[in-house]
Design goal:
The structure holds two protein chains of two kinds.
Chain A (H helix, E strand, L loop, with lengths): L1 H34 L2 H5 L1 H11 L4 H23 L8 H39 L2 H7 L4 H40 L3 H11 L2 H29 L4 H34 L1
Chain B lengths: L4 H24 L10 E8 L10 E4 L2 E12 L4 E9 L9 E6 L6 E6 L12 E2 L1 E3 L4 H15 L16 H7 L1
Parallel strand pairs in B: 1-7, 2-6, 5-8
Antiparallel strand pairs in B: 1-4, 2-3, 3-4, 5-6
Classes of the chains: A mainly alpha, B alpha/beta.
């Protein structure tokens, strides 16, 4: 009887301690990645190759989803703004929500599921097949040769992807608002330009994307590096990358938004 | 240095990123419209600025002629001291009047300039002396209710206390 109560409690406690432990190790891992980034910049081609795999190959999904998100925002915004007779503000609505929030956040979520999971699976499999150990044996640091280039590639790719997402979203909003519904073209752009501030909105969005890029790639590389060297372990690590990244992105977004709005007001 | 396809892709990717930033800055944001605009600063004092904000628009005849550069509270006169950055291209006479206006019922608050008849123009550092404060809706409603309450006790008392001149036509129209 006592056992039945004790065992779940023990499991709960173990999970909690495991979580704290992971945060600590991840922080140490992050420091180690930064410390061994020298190779990534001396041999920048390593990073460029990873940018190709994480950034360039994510372009399609980012551009297409950006376009659709912008179009949906346009339609939904029109529906509501129509009630107030302010349909010209549709450009403001689409641009501000994309540049400030949706661009960085949705691009980061897509990036985590498209590129982050791939990074985790790749590193996890390298670990499972003992390629990382083999590198270590040849005096090639896997940190410098495998992890750091992937980290920097993610940090470079993420802001670019977020910018492209926002730009495509605004274009999608334009397609629906101006071309399809027939909102005045001049009012659409001029109201948008009056409302969107380059520093407060565009650059703050870029800072968000940069932070999300760091968070997602650290989580992805860490989960891969830390995964148990089994098929099941790699699959679990991949799942955990996507779930943890999504939660961390949204939590960080709240914190960053609170900071940025305070700085503005 | 040898060239690979990866280099091309990397270059295209980064170029696309810069292009997107440029579009967001110039087409979506406000960097394009205010580029290299030479401005001169004029100071205005208002009793009440309502919802005016820094970087809010300054319009004359509906055209954007500048932006609100700074808002301070003047502790000596208990007034708001607003600094306007006006576009160098537009000149206004010295006796120009400034008022706080709102575009539409729910629109943004802006400073409206109405040109006077002086033959000298405003220069940087000058002060606009003729001002009109923001209309506070609650005050307006309060005044209306007050004048209404003063009037209702009886039509017989009305001649003794005539309603305020401003509210009279509205009240008369209602009856």
């Amino acid at each position: 009887m006592l056992d039945r109560v004790r065992r779940p409690l023990e499991r709960l406690g173990a999970n909690f301690i495991d979580g704290i432990w992971r945060i600590g190790v991840m922080a140490r891992f992050f420091g180690l990645v930064i410390a061994s980034s020298g190779t990534s910049f001396n041999r920048f081609r390593l990073v460029m190759r990873e940018v190709y795999f994480t950034g360039v190959l994510s372009l399609i999904i980012i551009i297409v989803s950006g376009l659709f998100v912008g179009m949906v925002l346009g339609l939904q915004g029109f529906e509501t703004l129509q009630k107030y007779g302010a349909t010209e503000s549709i450009g403001v609505l689409v641009a501000l929500s994309l540049v400030r929030e949706l661009g960085p956040v949705v691009a980061a979520l897509l990036f985590a599921s498209r590129a982050g999971s791939a990074i985790t699976a790749e590193i996890g499999l390298m670990k499972t097949t003992e390629q990382l150990t083999a590198m270590d044996m040849m005096a090639v640091s896997p940190m410098a040769r495998v992890i750091a280039p992937r980290f920097w590639a993610g940090v470079i790719s993420m802001p670019i992807l977020s910018l492209l997402f926002s730009a495509m979203g605004v274009f999608g909003g334009y397609l629906v608002g101006v071309v399809l519904i027939g909102v005045d073209n001049g009012a659409f752009w001029s109201q948008m330009q009056a409302a969107v501030d380059f520093r407060y909105d565009v650059l703050n969005g870029l800072v968000k994307a940069f932070v999300f890029g760091i968070a997602v790639t650290v989580i992805a590389t860490f989960e891969g590096y830390d995964s148990p060297p089994t098929a099941e372990g790699v699959s679990r690590a991949t799942t955990r990358t996507v779930v943890t990244s999504a939660l961390v992105i949204l939590a960080l977004d709240l914190v960053l938004t609170a900071f940025m709005l305070r700085a503005e007001g | 240095m040898e060239r690979t396809t990866i280099d091309l892709w990397f270059g295209a990717f980064v170029a696309a990123g810069f292009a997107a930033l440029l579009v967001l800055a110039l087409k979506v944001g406000n960097l394009g419209s205010e580029r290299a605009a030479q401005t001169y600063r004029v100071e205005v004092r208002f009793d009440n600025i309502g919802g005016l904000k820094v970087r809010g628009p300054v319009r004359s005849a509906g055209v954007l002629v500048g932006r609100v550069a700074d808002i301070h509270f003047d502790n000596d006169r208990y007034q708001a001291r607003v600094t306007l950055a006006l576009d160098q291209r537009y000149k206004f006479p010295k006796d120009t009047s400034a008022s706080i206006l709102t575009s539409g019922l729910l629109g943004e608050t802006y400073v409206g300039l109405e040109a006077g008849g002086d033959d000298k123009n405003l220069a940087g550092g000058d002060r606009i002396t003729i001002t009109q404060s923001a209309v506070v809706l609650e005050k307006l409603i309060g005044q209306f209710l007050f004048s209404k309450a003063q009037e209702t006790p009886g039509a017989s008392a009305a001649p003794a206390t005539p309603p305020p001149a401003a509210a009279a036509p509205a009240v008369a129209g209602k009856k």
